[in-house]
Amino acid sequence: MSEQPSPEKILQTGLAFWASKTLLSAIEIDLFTKLADGAKPFDVIRDLVGLHPRSARDFLDALVALGFLERTGDLYSNTIETNLFLDRTKPSYVGGILEMANHRLYPFWGHLTDALRTGQPQNEYRTGDPSLFETLYADPDRLKEFLSAMTGVSRGSNVAIAQRFPWKDYRTFVDVGTAQGDLAVQIAKANPHLQGFGFDLPQVAPFFEEYSTTSGVADRLSFVPGDFFQHDLPKADVVLMGHILHDWDLPTKKMLIAKAFDAVPSGGALVVYEALIDDDRSKNAFGLMMSLNMLIETPGGFDYTGANCSGWMKEAGFSQIRVEHLVGPDSMVIGIK
Ligand SMILES: C[S@@+](CC[C@H](N)C(=O)[O-])C[C@H]1O[C@@H](n2cnc3c(N)ncnc32)[C@H](O)[C@@H]1O
Questions:
Q1: Cα of 200 from ligand 1 centre, angstroms
Q2: Where is the O-methyltransferase dimerisation domain (predicted)?
Q3: Nearest CA to ligand 1 atom 9
């Protein structure tokens, strides 16, 4: 007997923003950080994070029901996951991307329908600001939030690339658009024979340097300031681009791949990674919605399939091109010169 159709999935997805915003607000008021030193009674938490009596019980119990807090009697505590990943004092904190989601993406996505109709970004562009990166880079607090958000979202794939790429065949690498430098740090930690460069806009330098120093690999990593629209990429055996190509239109994507080709020696490699869309464009919902996020955040950016990227890399001269899954929605495309 076939199952009766149910509206459950439709309703759950349609109202998924309730759960999303409940979690984002808990991060915004630092709830998980304040509970990191142990369980606390309801009254203490209410005062600690400044909740109105009308909201407090429903908010905390909603977080219990969603699986982000535990409650025993009147005591609330973090779960193992929220204690590890949402206490901002721990190096394992991944909330940077969620802080950015709360401040930027949540309000911007409210204008998705406008973006779908007009093809126009819905971030600061709406008020006439020239570019995502210029806006971020004008404000050190926003820049820091953005750079650490990138670390949070990229960490799993960075570790996978550090472990799985055949690094023993190479001696140097450059991570283009390195942000805080987590990919470079993970590669350097897992491969003590390598020297690496992080290439990014000059304003990123202090954040990269602080991060590589606290990670204990600063002796093998250096920051190269530059603008990939104006400058060649630093020469290295392997060029990496994580979440770079999806920010830009097709001519820029191809220009960056061509610059990577010029930067590596014969036998050198380009590694591109993102939430690559599956070739059938029907399974990787995260990758497809990431592309909608690029519609909202950039004038020409879009995500793409492994087959798309392989084609552009072949056109630039790379061969032995292969696509490998990393973690979650992410995959990498590797090409050899
Ligand atoms: C989406 S982030 C990706 C960060 C990191 N690769 C990751 O995957 O987590 C894009 C990066 O490209 C850098 N970027 C943007 N425009 C650039 C330019 N013209 N030249 C060099 N880097 C640039 C930004 O500063 C930012 O660090």
A1: 6
A2: 15-86
A3: 150
Residue 179 CA to ligand 1 centre (angstroms): 6
Catalytic positions: 246
For residue 128, what is the DSSP state?
T
Rounded distance from Cα 43 to ligand 1 centre (Å): 44
Helices (H) and strands (E) in the chain, counts: 16, 10
Of the two residues 139 and 190, the one the predictor is more confident about is 190
Average pLDDT of the segment spanning 246-275: 98
Domains of the chain: residue spans and CATH: 8-85 (1.10.10.10), 150-336 (3.40.50.150)
Q: Ligand 1: which atom is nearest the Cα of residue 150?
A: 9
Structure confidence by residue, pLDDT tens digits, 51-81: 999 999 999 999 999 999 999 999 999 999 9
Q: Which atom of ligand 1 is nearest to the CA of 180?
A: 27
> In whole angstroms, what is the distance from residue 289 CA to residue 55 CA?
32
The residue whose CA has the least distance to atom 12 of ligand 1 is: 177
- For the chain, the average pLDDT equals 95
Which has the higher per-residue pLDDT, 257 or 128? Answer: 257
What ipTM describes this predicted complex?
0.99
- Indicate left, alpha or beta for 150 from its phi (over 0: left) and psi (-120 to 50: alpha): alpha
Which stretches of 87-211 are assigned E, i.e. beta strand?
172-176, 195-200
Residues touching ligand 1 (Cβ under 6 Å) are: 133, 150, 154, 177-179, 200-201, 204, 227-229, 242-244, 247
Distance 15 CA to ligand 1 centre (A): 33
Q: State pTM to two decimals.
A: 0.92
Report the candidate in 259, 224, 222 with the shortest Cα–Cα distance to residue 244: 259
Query: Which residue, among 163, 161, 181, has the nearest Cα to 272 in the 3D structure?
Result: 161
- Per-residue pLDDT reduced to its tens digit, 32-42: 999 999 999 99
Query: At 160, which amino acid appears?
Result: A
What are the start-end ranges of the H helices in the chain? Answer: 8-14, 16-28, 31-34, 42-49, 53-66, 80-85, 95-100, 106-109, 112-118, 132-137, 140-164, 182-190, 205-214, 250-263, 285-297, 306-316
